[in-house]
Design goal:
single chain; 363 residues; alpha+beta; Immunoglobulin-like; Rossmann fold; 3 domains; 5-stranded mixed sheet; 7 helices; 23% helix; 34% strand; elongated
């Protein structure tokens, strides 16, 4: 009889607890998550922190959180065993009254991208698992993953094109900040060019002479097409060549900006879910490298316009050093390059090697 009485009391309390959990269990529940940093580079490892709180006096025997995680996230903690192949992350825990659970996961960011974690699905129930319910929980977290920079970004390009001011043999006007010597004064020389120290030494008026320079402006154009006759969107295993082009563009732009050269890029691809091709004309200044890298992180490998048509749109460019990164060469691309040269630009094409397709690799 004592055992039966204890069992009845236990079942009664479990029933009451289940009813209370179903009615009031989520009123004090809170869930938030965040990354240890908002900006990172592909290959970096960051920390993803989850904070689960229970501000109510109820005991929650079990709570299960399920959320979709990008496949480009590689978890470095034990919880990686609970990540399914479809990209779902599941964690199960118990919440005591007025308690808080903090979980930290080390995550390796395997690929460039703009990742936004939006919501999670929470399932909870009573001690005997006879009652359960679920709800959607808003838990936004965002991180920009910059493309990785390559060490051998300029294997065959003339380095003088991307390094600061370049002296040229002839130009319309001389550069007032580039002094290359001193000579005797001539009629018509401006007074501001008089070199007073040299005049005092020689006893005759001496003036400074200036060189003629050009100010390079680097514009990198990225082709999202893998071949000239491509008509559909690229499969995931076919996108590695385009990712290499984006990494190369990031390396070129950051190197140019570090040398004081204006840099920009454009691509026949959108940013995130946009409907227009990415276009960032050359510029320089504080924060310019971060702005370009952030934009490259948001690039979606999705062709909006054929590359020849995209090059026609680029005919608004004047006096720039244009580098085209493409997986193929064609007569149509060459014709547009010549048109860009006629508009006063210097244009070069770098054809990137393609990886073999999956079918060819298995042949």
């Amino acid at each position: 009889m004592d055992v039966l009485l204890i069992l009845l009391i236990f079942l009664g309390l479990s029933l009451i607890q289940g009813l209370l959990i179903m009615r009031f269990g989520m009123r004090g529940f809170s869930y938030r998550r965040s990354f240890s940093q908002k900006y990172a580079t592909a290959g970096d490892t960051v920390e993803l922190t989850e904070v689960i709180g229970n501000k109510s006096p109820l005991f929650l025997p079990w709570v299960r959180l399920e959320m979709r995680m990008p496949r480009q996230f590689e978890f470095q903690t034990r919880e990686e065993l609970l990540i399914r192949s479809q990209g779902y992350h599941k964690s199960v825990f118990t919440l005591l009254p007025f308690s808080q659970v903090t979980r930290r996961h080390r995550v390796k960011l395997c690929q460039r991208g703009h990742y936004v974690l939006s919501h999670a699905v929470m399932t909870y129930g009573d001690l005997l698992c006879t009652r359960s319910d679920f709800r959607d929980v808003d838990a936004p977290a965002e991180i920009f993953v910059y493309p990785a920079r390559t060490a051998d970004a300029l294997p065959s390009l003339p380095s003088s094109r991307f390094q600061g001011d370049v002296s040229v043999q002839r130009w319309i006007l001389s550069d007032p900040f580039w002094i290359n010597g001193i000579r005797s004064y001539r009629a018509g020389d401006p007074l501001r060019d008089i070199h007073w120290a040299a005049t005092a030494r020689t006893g005759q008026l001496q003036v400074k002479t200036h060189d003629f320079t050009a100010d390079p402006r680097l514009m990198v154009l990225i082709n999202a097409q893998r071949s000239e006759d491509q008509w559909g969107e690229l499969l995931e295993h076919e996108q590695s060549g385009i990712e290499r082009a984006i990494s190369l563009a990031a390396t070129l732009c950051t190197r140019a900006l570090s040398g004081g050269v204006e840099a920009g890029f454009a691509a026949n691809m959108p940013l995130d879910d946009g409907s227009e091709c990415a276009f960032f004309p050359p510029a320089r200044g504080a924060g310019r490298d971060e702005a370009l890298l952030c934009a490259m992180a948001c690039l979606q490998i999705k062709r909006l316009r054929s590359f020849p048509a995209f090059l026609e749109d680029m005919c608004v460019l004047r006096g720039m050093d244009i580098l085209i990164l493409s997986s193929y060469d064609s007569e149509q691309i060459r014709a547009r390059m010549q048109r860009l040269r006629q508009l006063g630009n210097s244009v070069a094409l770098l054809v990137l090697p393609q990886e073999p397709s999956r079918e060819a690799a298995h042949a």
